[in-house]
C-alpha cells in the first residue's frame, strides 16, 4: 500500500531516497523499484527494520529492484544517523503523529535533505482520525500509538517552520477509513468481529489485485474520507 506519489519526488537515477519510520518497508521497497535509486530505510523498531531488510533481499532474489542499492537502519528520527544535505528526497509517512518531539523530528528531516530536495509527509486526516479517537479510547492510549491529531494548518506550520516550501498535496486510502472505524467501534483487540474480518479480507484483495473498480472508487472518495493527507515540500 503506497501512500506517497513517487512522481512528485522527482528523483533521478543515481539519487538517494530516505524513508523515515519505514515500518516493514512499503515505501523503502517502492523506492528501490525506481531506476538507479539508493533506497534507505530507517525505523525505531529493530524487528520492523529486519523485516524491511528481508523484503529487500527477497526483491534482490527475484530481480525486482530498479538497479540501485539499498540500506536499512534501526534508529531514532529525532537523531538521524546521516550527514547534512545527503538525500535527494525524504519520505516520512504516518510517523509524526507518534513522535513526542515532532519539531525536532521535522528539523532532522530537513537537515539531511539536499537543497531543492523534496520532502513527502503523510499523516492521518483530521476528520477520520477524530472519529477513531471518539470511538475508541484504546486507539490513542496504546503505547507507541497516535498522540496528536494534525489539522492541515498545524502540519504546514510545523514543516514550513523548519524552512520548507509547501508545493501541494492530496488525500489517500479512502477505503481504509471505514475499516479503522469498524475496528475502533468493535474493539481494537477483538479478532472475532466478523465485520472487521470481512472488511480486512476485502482490503487485502484490493491491495493485491488492484481492480479498476475499487481504484476508481478510492479516487472518488478520497476528497471526502481519505484516511491520509499527503503533503509535498521543497527545501529552498
From TrEMBL:
CDD domains: AdoMet_MTases. One of its GO terms (biological process) is methylation. Residues 18-120 form the Methyltransferase type domain. The keyword Methyltransferase applies. GO terms for molecular function: S-adenosylmethionine-dependent methyltransferase activity. Keywords: Methyltransferase, Transferase. Pfam families: Methyltransf_11. SUPFAM superfamilies: S-adenosyl-L-methionine-dependent methyltransferases. PANTHER family: GERANYL DIPHOSPHATE 2-C-METHYLTRANSFERASE, ZGC:194242. This is Methyltransferase domain-containing protein.
